[in-house]
Design brief:
The complex is a heterodimer. By secondary structure, chain A is α+β, with helices and mostly antiparallel strands. Chain A is 36% helix and 25% strand. In chain A, strand 8 and strand 9 form a beta hairpin. The chains are: A alpha+beta, B alpha+beta. The structure holds flavin-adenine dinucleotide (FAD).
Chain lengths: 293, 755
């Protein structure tokens, strides 16, 4: 199907983007890779008179380390992230996740910011970003604010971003020695049915864990109850307590039956993936070399 | 260069450099662009269609609706005349063409679709075959004319007042008596899903009326069938209808017989201007799909593993129009027999209309559905009898020359040999791989392809020794042009560079039944053999006349002929004969049921067979099946082009991974809910087995030149049952419903563990 006619804008500065957005209001949308937006426009589920291409806005580009955080600019594609030496070195688990998104065509055009803004539930990044304590930086003509990734997505295709705001960057705390993260997903269709993200943080003999689930709800789900129950449990003893907790938590998640699978199967996958992801995160934290492939 | 490195196929370079011309690349002067408005409801009467707003859009030239076609012979079909050119008063499935816009460009045409308002009066609908059979089910059709021998031999047998459009039965021996005498009877039901052909190129046609002639650039696999249907619809002589078949981007049956050609031609007829219609993949998904099937199999055996009787009942969901479904139903029954000695056999097949996408021929028509059921059951029986599955099969295998069915050609291959080779190859792969964690499964498939021994070719030998091969065999990616080139080169004993295979064009190419059913290389091969004989007899006659040669001694040699110890170039021969240094010899090759002493008349022309063995590992917690190794073995008689032949075999197997593991067109409330490229999941290259071996046996026993038989479909047969058999053998989980999604596998394993 074809795109309905629209006017194309190619600003090179953020201020010009905001001007265009202010001028055209509801009739305008920004885009980066266009992998989501253009499909929606072609399917005629969305329609805009004005499309604003962000790709030339230099302020949104780049991947760098800033203090204790990795900063991923809004224009960074999944492919760039997956192959960036800085990302691989400082947040290897996130680089690995990026390499597993969709297919090479989508990865080389699609951006992380576009993925988060669109907030299609069957996505990979949100749960791991939440588990890693990442944040999303939003800018408007007036202000700049930071929102924890864990709170950014509130529902299907809905985020806390205001109409006049753009994602400027995503900030991920650098993974330090004694920490490990891992994202695992499963599905037999194009996009994941269920994803699980786990973290293991070993500090001075005390171990804490992070556990989030993705794709099966309309926003990332925090397995807080499991995290609390296993806080302080040494890695070696996890297998004694985790399975029961994971199964019990998963069985309470409200999942829906659809093409990806029945609700109870998805709950089961959630418990399996939580356990596997946590085991892998622990291995990474204790410095074991694990392949992220 | 080795055979593998230099496929005699000049198309490949063109394709990989993006220069090949497909229909979508063709520009006809004055051409408009058409787009199709499709029904959004499964079953309804059309109360009104308002096209005024669409016509008012600048750039829109015309809108075609059912009201326009009343003066034409507006219903057509390859077996049953059940399909209107475009919906007239009623729609029967979501996706059925309701109106068509022609505009200056595709964008305007698409915009205009949004402006058309259709008012429907909804009717009750049915999407499941079993429900369509129930008394009181909504009837999808009234009565339609069955047209005998129109495209397939024979005719469909619809049952008035029901949704049944085809019924077929075959009986040999006394099945009930044999069941009573059997030590054990096994009875199960197997489900095969609706799957989409997914050719890379969606359907695309350009139609142009000029004067009292019609030219079509068609993506159809059967140009002469398209020509014939159009001739009936528009009441035009065949000779005034020209079908050109450029490179086609895959078909797999989704473009066999006739598909969107009459629809596009109707628009061109209204416009009196050329018009191009190129569907999207999603629209192609709403055009044709494989018939889904429920297959009941009952088998009676002795405790020693001897099969005494088998009864197979196939119920097929044929969708809103019969299309090629009547033939699929017959084949599904026949292909359920397998390569086994079954003294008492009962086959029955029923195909029904439903309010879904029309079912159609699809690679090894009816075969995968049938073989899925019967080869799954073979392993179930072996297990129950405590026999090794290969041993159980071996006990009942037909040897070459034995009859599959009394009225069909005896089997012409050794299936035991193929099964043994598959097992040996698998052991070799596993040993090399150090693999001791996977489980194996095996299945055998045989099919009766190569339908209709009716084909012809024209070969024009030019004075310079170059040869034009002119046929209606469509190059659909299978490499047929390369094969014909090589066969012509062999038969005329001329270098391959001297042979040119032309684009099929019914204006110049002689009649052929069509490209499908694994028949083109074989059938055109036979025709080429005949045409070469024709050319030889003509040059021999001329050589006698002008050089007093003994005509019986004349042979082809490179660039000319040889007789005794004399050698003449074609130029010397024809120059002397015609008196000028110009001219050609036209050879005609024909294949008919009377050819080769009548040996081609018996069905099938040959048996297309495959033995498949897989090795799988299952993640028991997620239910994911990983096929680590796959071996596919087939006796193809003779390999003409190794790279292309192996490619066909691997392609057919990989295609089967789709219906085995993930593919299924899903209906909910009458709507196909996953008919898009994102939601309908075909296997990607990362799902290919780590080790994939194709063994092509060259027994030289086929009916074609050099003992070749056809190929390209057989390998699709064993995959699903082989994988299900491995799953049962390794994990105790027997699943009788495809696809084997991770969820189904997980549930089956869990149930097994629970019990
Ligand atoms: C075939 C396919 C398979 C896929 N599979 C997966 C998968 O397996 N896992 C997964 O996680 N994802 C998957 N995706 C989604 C993919 O990750 C996203 O399409 C991609 O990341 C979107 O980025 P984009 O730059 O192309 O977004 P665009 O299409 O350009 O934009 C998407 C939305 O975000 C908005 N937007 C873009 N940039 C900004 C910004 N800086 N600030 C505010 N709003 C912005 C746009 O207005 C638009 O609404 C798949 C997509 C496709 C098409």
């Amino acid at each position: 199907m074809f795109l309905a006619p629209f006017k194309h804008h190619r600003p090179t500065e953020l201020s010009a983007v905001f001007e265009a957005l202010a001028k055209y209001g509801d009739e305008a949308a920004v885009y980066a890779g266009g992998t989501e937006l253009l499909l929606a426009l072609k399917a005629r589920v969305l329609r805009y008179e004005h499309l604003i291409d962000l790709k030339r806005v230099r302020e949104l580009a780049g991947i760098k380390v800033d203090g204790e955080e990795l900063v991923i600019g809004a224009l960074a594609t999944h492919h760039e992230i997956a192959n960036s030496a800085v990302v691989k070195q400082h947040v290897p688990a996130y680089a690995a996740l990026s390499e597993g998104i969709a297919n090479i065509r989508v990865r080389s055009a699609g951006t992380l910011a576009g993925n988060l803004s669109f907030s299609e539930p069957h996505s990979d990044p949100p749960s791991l970003l939440a588990a890693m304590g990442a944040s999303v930086t939003l800018v408007s003509p007036q202000a700049r604010r930071s929102v924890p990734a864990a709170e950014f997505i509130v529902g299907e295709f809905t985020t806390v971003r205001n109409e006049d705001e753009l994602i400027a960057e995503i900030r991920i705390p650098l993974t330090r020695a004694g920490e490990g993260y891992r994202y695992l997903k499963f599905g037999h269709l194009e996009r994941p049915a269920v994803g699980a993200s786990a973290g293991c943080i070993i500090r001075g003999g005390h171990t804490r864990y992070r556990l989030w689930l993705g794709a099966l709800g309309d926003h990332p789900i925090h397995a807080a109850e499991v995290e609390d129950a296993i806080a302080g449990v040494p890695v070696a003893l996890l297998p004694d307590v985790l399975p029961k907790l994971a199964v019990s938590f998963a069985s309470k998640i409200s999942a829906t039956s659809d093409l990806h699978g029945s609700a109870d199967y998805k709950q089961h996958l959630a418990s399996v993936l939580m356990q596997r992801a946590l085991a892998a995160a622990c291995a990474a934290a204790s410095g074991e070399r694990v392949s992220h492939a | 260069m080795s055979d593998r490195l230099s496929p005699p196929n000049p198309d490949h370079l063109e394709k990989v450099t993006g220069r090949t011309q497909f229909i979508t690349d063709i520009e006809v002067p004055g051409m408009l662009h058409g787009k199709v408005l499709r029904s959004t409801v499964p079953h309804a009467m059309i109360k009104s269609i308002d096209v005024s707003a669409a016509l008012a859009i600048p750039g829109v030239v015309a809108v075609l609706t059912g009201a326009d076609i009343v003066g034409l012979n507006h219903h057509w079909g390859p077996s049953l005349k059940d399909r209107p050119l475009i919906a007239i008063d009623r729609v029967r499935y979501v996706g059925e063409p309701v109106a068509m816009v022609a505009a200056e460009n595709e964008r305007i045409a698409e915009e205009a679709l949004d402006a058309i308002v259709v008012d429907y009066e909804l009717l009750p609908f049915v999407t499941e075959a079993a429900e369509a059979l129930e008394p009181g089910a909504p009837l999808v059709h009234g009565n339609h004319e069955a047209i005998k021998d129109f495209y397939f031999k024979g005719e469909a047998k619809p049952v008035a007042g029901t949704n049944i459009f085809q019924r077929y039965a075959y009986e040999q021996g006394d099945v009930e008596k044999a069941f009573a005498e059997s030590d054990r009877c096994f009875e199960s039901k197997y489900e095969f899903p609706m799957v989409f052909h997914y050719a890379m190129e969606p359907h695309c046609v350009i139609a142009s009326f000029h004067g009292d002639s019609l030219t079509l650039w068609s993506c159809g696999q059967s140009p002469t069938a398209v020509q014939k249907v159009l001739s009936r619809v528009f009441d035009m002589p065949l000779a005034r209808i020209r079908i050109i078949s450029p490179h086609i981007g895959g078909g797999f049956g989704g473009k066999a017989s006739v598909k969107i050609d009459p629809l596009v031609a109707a628009l061109a007829w209204k416009l009196r201007r050329p018009v191009r219609v190129c569907l999207s993949i999603s629209e192609s998904m709403l055009t044709a799909r494989r018939l889904s099937a429920t297959v009941h199999v009952r088998t009676g055996v002795r405790n020693d593993g001897t099969i005494l009787a088998k009864s197979v009942r196939v119920l097929m969901n044929g969708g809103a129009y019969a299309d090629t479904g009547p033939a699929v139903a017959v084949k599904a029954a026949n292909r359920a027999i397998g390569p086994y000695r079954i003294p008492n056999l009962s086959l029955e097949s029923v195909a029904v209309y439903t309010n879904t996408v029309p079912g159609a021929a699809f690679r090894s028509i009816g075969g995968p559905q049938a073989v899925w059921a019967t080869e799954s059951q073979m392993d179930e029986i072996a297990e129950a009898l405590g026999l090794n599955p290969a041993e159980f099969r071996n006990r009942n295998l037909l040897r070459r020359g034995e009859h599959v069915r009394a009225d069909l050609r005896p089997i012409d291959v050794e299936m035991g040999e193929a099964m043994d080779i598959a097992a040996q190859e698998m052991s070799r792969i596993k040993a090399l791989d150090g693999d001791n964690i996977t489980y194996d499964g095996t299945a055998l498939g045989i099919s009766d392809p190569g339908i209709m021994p009716v084909a012809s070719v024209v070969m024009r030998l030019k004075i310079d020794g170059s040869v034009a091969v002119i046929s209606n065999s469509v190059e659909i990616g299978q490499g047929v042009r390369g094969v014909l080139r090589k066969l012509a080169s062999e038969q005329l004993n001329q270098p391959i560079e001297a042979i040119e295979v032309l684009t099929p064009d019914t204006a110049i190419a002689p009649y052929d039944w069509g490209t499908g059913a694994s028949r083109s290389s074989l059938m055109m091969g036979l025709a080429i053999e005949d045409a070469a004989r024709d050319i030889l007899s003509q040059v021999a006659e001329i050589a006698e006349l002008v050089f007093s040669a003994d005509p019986a001694a004349v042979r082809f040699c490179e660039g000319g002929i040889i007789f005794g110890n004399e050698k003449k170039t074609f130029s010397e021969l024809l120059h002397t004969y015609y008196g000028i240094d110009s001219g050609e010899i036209v050879g005609v090759g024909r294949v008919t049921p009377y050819s080769n002493g009548g040996r081609l008349a018996q069905a099938p022309l040959f048996w297309e067979t495959a033995a498949g063995q897989c090795a799988i590992a299952v993640d028991e917690e997620t239910g994911e099946i990983k096929v680590r190794h796959y071996v596919s073995v087939a006796d193809v008689g003779r390999v003409v082009n190794r790279a292309a032949a192996e490619g066909q075999d691997e392609g057919a197997s990989m295609m089967a991974f789709g219906h085995t593991l993930s593919e299924e067109l899903v209906y909910q409330d009458g709507q196909p809910i996953n008919a898009t490229m994102i939601d309908y999941h075909v296997p990607t290259i990362d799902k290919a087995p780590e080790n994939f071996v194709t063994v092509l046996i060259e027994s030289g026993t086929g009916p074609g030149p050099g003992g070749m038989r056809g190929m390209g479909e057989g390998a699709i047969l064993p995959v699903a049952p082989a994988i299900a058999n491995a799953l049962a053998a390794g994990y105790g989980a027997r699943i009788r419903e495809l696809p084997l999604t991770p969820e189904r596998v997980w549930r089956a394993i869990r149930e097994k563990r629970g019990s």
